[in-house]
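Aim 2, interim progress: modelling of the fe (ii) ion-bound target.
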Amino acid sequence: MPRAASPSHAKTAPRIVKSDPRERWAQAYGAVRAETEWRAAPLSEEDQQIQSMPDASPAKWHRAHTTWFFEQFVLVPHAEGYEIFDQRFPFLFNSYYVAAGPRHYRPERGLITRPSVKDIVAYRAHVDAAMTQLIEKAPDDRAATIFALVEVGLHHEQQHQELMFTDMLHAFAQNPFDIAYLPDWQPPRPEGGNEFAQLPSGLRTIGYDGDGFCFDNERPIHQTYLQPARIGRGLVTNGEWLEFMRDGGYVTPALWLSDGWSAVETQGWSAPGYWRQDDAGWSILTLGGLKPVDPALPVCHISYYEADAFARWAGKHLPTEFEWEVAARAGIIDGAFGHVWQWTRSAYLPYPGYRADPGALGEYNGKFMVNQMVLRGSSLATPQGHARTSYRNFFPAAARWQFSGLRLIEYPT
Ligand SMILES: [Fe+2]
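Predicted structure of the complex, ligand included:
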């Protein structure tokens, strides 16, 4: 597993080596659920209510939705005699699983003031008690099925832990008081200079080939042909981004894709997300509050469009997700994990032969394979134990509220 720096206080890797799988899964379940609570702890009830844009969700909703996931996909089918905590909750806390029933309109999650945060705390406790009992008493003939679903639920909750940070940072960015989510937080510092390393070329294997957990979109493993190339060892930094800005990067249409230039014009982009300028220079709102932009740190909160324009300005390219994966596996890039997700120039598409599983959980990844770009690596907000070399994150090209940055690649001319 890759090493991923994280502000997390707890190690939450779902796989903990213990001889009895019941004990192992009970411990993993408790650790991941505790991490969610740790991330919620600095937030007031008012903080947890806010939905600052349609793409973001209230922290309260994240805490409830991850709980509904276990209730819907583990307890209801597998815990005999389990009683749903509140029959009204599935409508509110189902996100996008059409096969699991009707659901509330996503952009209006912030309008739901009741159930309260206290109600959600009680919901989590109810489901935690039932889950712990189910795991500890799992019958031998169904244990493997139940634990596989628990594992999906834990990785799902970890994804929402990252979203709790990114969504709340967006909400705090609307507040004139420069709120610090984690007042003692300091940005992690990646290693790596600005040299380029020779990428292994030719036929290469892509996808997850281990015996641990992966999402269905990381399979089937398959072969891809890579052209000779040299990949940037380090992440693009704020200092390099400032050069791009000083050189007119945001006011030069020739550097931009058509949709990207439209985004620059309509959204008024002139710097990465959460950057502000005053007499002292540029600063950025981070998890630790407002901080001066540090030229040595990786640039963060940029869209695919911005990453693409930067690469064009630099006379380089963005790597494909396959080039990125081969480079990460070869150990020739620095800062791959635990800093910023790295945009690739790969559209989010199924691997050859991919089929989503039947049933509601088959809606997890496959139905989103259009109009999004792949990001690789992991970010400073990704919980410990969640990152993988084959992991495929994906967002629309204009999204920049995630901890997203880039590295470059060059080809022989
Ligand atoms: Fe979800």
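The pocket of fe (ii) ion is lined by residues 65, 95, 156, 160 (CB under 6 Å). Residues 283 and 293 are 5 Å apart (CA to CA).
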